[in-house]
Design a protein that fits this description.
Elements: H1 2-22, H2 32-45, H3 65-74, H4 80-102, H5 108-120, H6 122-126, H7 137-153, H8 165-182, H9 190-199, H10 206-217, H11 221-236, H12 239-247, H13 255-264, H14 275-297, H15 302-320, H16 339-351, H17 353-383, H18 392-408, E1 413-418, H19 426-435, E2 440-444, E3 448-451, E4 456-461, E5 474-480, E6 487-493, E7 508-514, E8 518-525, E9 539-548, E10 556-564, E11 570-576, E12 589-597, E13 608-616, E14 621-622, E15 624-625, E16 631-633, E17 636-639
Parallel strand pairs: 1-2, 1-4
Antiparallel strand pairs: 3-12, 4-6, 5-6, 7-8, 7-15, 8-9, 9-12, 10-11, 10-13, 13-14, 13-17, 15-16
Length: about 650
Amino acid sequence: MRIHQDWFYALILCILAALPRLCYLELAEFKLDEANHYRMAYELTRGSWQWVGSVSSVGISKPPLFVWALALPLAVTRDPRVVTGFLGVLASLSTGGFYLLLRRFWGRKTAFGAALLFAFNPQAVLYARKLFTADLLPPLCVLFLYAGLNFLEASVDAEPVRWGIGKWAALTAFAFALLLLTTFSPLILAPAVFLLFWERRHDLAWRDWGGAFTAFILPFVPYWVTLAPVLLFAARDGLVEQVAAETTIAELPPIADWLLSWLLGTACPEHWISLSGGLAVALLVSSGVGCVWLLWKARTRSWARFFVMWLLGAPLVFLLAPIAHYAHYLIVLCPLLFVLPAIPIDLLDRKSLALGWAGLAGMVGIAIGYVGIWIGMMQAVTLGVEGYGTPLGYWREAAETARMLARQYSAAEVLVLVPGDQPWDEKAAVLDALLGNQPHRVVNGYTTVVYPSHPAIFVIASEVDASLTYPCTQELANGIASPYGDTYHYRLWQPDAENASACVAALMPAEEYWASGTALLGYGVADVQSRELLAPGSSRQFILYWEVRNGPLNEDVHWFNHLEDETGQRWAQFDGVGWPASRWKPQDRILWHFDMTLASEAAPPPYRWRIGQYTYPAMEGIPVVDAAGNPVDSAILLPLP
């Protein structure tokens, strides 16, 4: 009957933990890391298998377990809310499992109080609501805790129907391997793993050691085999030493502040004589009592030594390892960290049942305080709070609106004009990931507009200048891009529309060809009305309008732009890619705008505009050709308007 009661309480805790983790997933944080993980997992479901994960902060690819885990819900649905909720479900289930594990050592009140803190702690909830590698750690930590405790208690002479010490040793090593296959921060649990095997060293046979070693090493073999060539090249080029030098720090990390913020679920209170201050004091006092009690128990109990090494060994590694540390590394302490403030419940319960219930009521009060903090955090997110990424709902709405408009107007693709088109540009990465199987391309809207040969939906971020698309496109809708007031403009491009050439009508016509398969159609200088505007020291926006005849190409094509006087002396220069050749499609027309500044010591006008192309990074010139494709020159000279 008691066992059934514990399972009932575990179920209640799972439900309680699910409430904050699965509600209002539209407000879940979704940034560059989340987008990369989502995209990699989606590609995995499309048959693009991979043995490495996303790139870590030190420049080395992480192991792939997190991406594999996200592929499970993505195989069923592409809804990012469901994928995010999948991690919340795992964390919720681990809450009930955590309670059942604690019941081995403490009464129901203590175990329930510790699990309740984990269920509602705002930081623990936050790291179960985004597609971040460390979000998978708490469920895996519960698995590691389960394996480690059974390893400590396993019998050497187990019956055939029961697991013996060798199997538990292998499972413990495998659970630790799963933690490391997710991300690198669980390395700080290495002292706890060492302690486990040290405690049972006399009971392990050679085959047990071999089994544990094999269970730990085998999962890493594909990862290391895949990463080995990268590391060899990095070592050859001295990149490993460079990364180590950049991550070395002179100051110790604020471990105490980080631990307190994890216990509180938020930053330390500014005023200790307040509701939040009272919550902090209660957690500090109860955690201090729990820590002292656990240290006392560690004298005679191996499981207590395991807990101590897990909780205290991790911060010790922070202090000894001369590398950059981040607060989210402490996620590996979850959920065991919440045992400390709950231990006093057991001490009170031994005095009297009334005191035990009072102690549990205190934990419930702290959990209610957690709920208040979490509600305040979510309210701040809806208004826009510094340090929190754009909520998932805004990104999802933008992608779904683009999909809907593409279907409605039979557009062949979506063109996303955002500030930057590189993998590290957040808007580009997020929208690229969420648009997924919808034909689309990302364009650096700061410099480029692409007019394809087929109808397309333009999604234009408010940060970029949309004036180069207004005259030749049709306005469809506007959407909110973030709580900070940013917007998206949705416009329809139709190449056969009457106004299709309106965006380039003011440009000077041209007809020049390059061997790269591009043709210059027009050019111009913005706001040039008199010769004085191109005087020495002045800066102006220059515009090139060109068409792709062949593409895509395997190597990039860069343009060089020189402003020269009549003697050929160069007084300004700008080199750039305009539109990456890997994204070219035949009959794409590109409007590329950029600034050039004449040197203050430049000769007086008139000036000439010299334009040419070269491959990058080979830096080989691409010749200008005639209509038949025969080379005629290395560059062209254009008179300025």
